[in-house]
Amino acid sequence: MRATPLTPLSDEFALVPDAPAAPPGMAAQPGTPYDELVAFHGLERERLVLIHPGSHAAAPAWPTERYAEVADLLAADGWQIAIVGDALEPERTGAVLGAMQTAALFLAGTMTPETLTRLIGDARLVLSDDAARPSPVAEARALGTPQIALDERHGETTSDDVAAEARAALARESAAHPGDPFTLHTPAFSDAA
Q: Region entry Disordered: which residue ranges (predicted)?
C-alpha cells in the first residue's frame, strides 16, 4: 500500500538540479561553480578518470568505440569515468557515451574553461586524442596530472594497449584508488511497507 498517493505530472515541468544539502542547523553557502559541479554529479576526485575524445586535427585520431572500450574497462575496475569535451563536439563526445556498456558522467560542454582546468587538476588520469595547446592533455601536463595523448602514438594502438597503460599510470598515483564499480545514482520512488 502506498503511504501517499502519487500526483499526476503536469504537462509543463522543468528539471532543476537540487542544491547541495547543508548540514543540519547550517544555511547552505554558495560554492564555486567547480564545487557545485562536484557536489551535483557526485565526483570522487580520488578515482576520477577524464575521457576527452576531441581533437584539434581535421579528423579525430582514435575511434569513439575504442574510447568506449577503454572507459568500460576502467569503469569495471572501479574508476569513475567522466566524458568531457567542447560544446562544439556533441556528436563525438555523445558517441563515446552511447557506445559504452557501463555508466559514465557526461560533462561535455557543461563548464567554463576555469572549471575544466580545476577538474583536470583533480583527476587521476586524462585520456585524449591530442596534446596540442589548448587541450586537456596540455593542461594535465602543466598541472602534473597523468595523461595519455593518443596522437603521440605511432601506428595502430589497441584499446587493450591503452587500458594497460592507463592502469599502470593509475597504479603509480598514490592518492588514486578505484572503488566499487561506478554506477550513476538515479532518484527512485519507494513504496511504503
A: 173-193
Domain that holds residue 124: 35-172
The reply to whether omega before 134 is within 30° of 0 (cis) is yes
pTM of the model: 0.75
Question: How far apart are alpha carbons 168 and 155 in whole angstroms?
Answer: 21
Look up residue 149 and give its three cell numbers: 595523448
Counting the structural domains of the chain, the total is 1
Which tens digits make up the pLDDT trace of 21-76?
444 443 445 588 999 999 989 999 899 999 998 776 655 668 889 999 999 999 99
Which positions ≥6 away from 192 have C-beta within 8 Å? 1, 2, 3, 4
109: Cβ contacts below 8 Å, ≥ 6 apart? 85, 86, 87, 88, 89, 90, 93
Q: Tell me whether residue 165 is in a domain.
A: yes
